[in-house]
Amino acid sequence: MKLDVIKLDGAAAGSVELTDEIFDLEPRADILQRVVRWQRNKAQAGTHKVKTRSEVSYSTKKIYRQKGTGGARHGSRKAPIFRKGGIYKGPTPRSHAHDLPKKVRALGLKLALSAKAKTGSLVVIETAETDGKTNTLAKQVRDLGWKRALIIDGASVNEGFARAAANIDGLDVLPSMGANVYDILKRDTLVLTKAGVEALEARLK
């Protein structure tokens, strides 16, 4: 498929041929859901923790005699049955990550790119370079009508452009290796540089 290329000031800059195997696939919500869940679970901290009966702070002395009280036998105030006692089978620190085949992850990224292309939310720009001024870039973004956009560049991001974009709300910049399904789907507009298109095609072929 062919897509027009523009500059940041909105001027035309030719066109680019996009690989159909990456940018023109039929959408599959099940694959996208699997990849997004894999990403979010991997990012989850998993630091939730409760204190067990071996960790709560109480005396280890037997609380009352074994027989003759008319009540149940107890040896420790740390037992889960008592107020402020240890928690039984509560959450402990763990990883929420799970495995997902590399082919499914790659397919998910292709489907995310295709989804943006099919809805007309994919824009290709010549280069992501600016004078480093946030004001200049913010005006260009506003004129282009990008409200929540993700810009994916080539192997590395231009330092001045990254600095200018850092303070613009709703604008994120990633190198091609950082491209991922969750960030692509979360934004309204996906912007690729020509170098970004080449890098993604080389990565996914």
From TrEMBL:
Protein known as: Large ribosomal subunit protein uL4
Similarity section: Belongs to the universal ribosomal protein uL4 family.
Gene Ontology CC annotations of this record: ribonucleoprotein complex; ribosome
Matches recorded under PANTHER family: 50S RIBOSOMAL PROTEIN L4, LARGE RIBOSOMAL SUBUNIT PROTEIN UL4M
Quaternary structure, per UniProt, is: Part of the 50S ribosomal subunit.
The terms under GO molecular function for this entry are: rRNA binding; structural constituent of ribosome
> Per its UniProt record, what NCBIfam families does this chain match?
rplD_bact
Keywords, comma-separated and alphabetical: Ribonucleoprotein, Ribosomal protein, RNA-binding, rRNA-binding
Q: Looking at the keywords, is Nuclease present?
A: no
Record organism? Thalassococcus halodurans
Q: Give a Pfam family name.
A: Ribosomal_L4
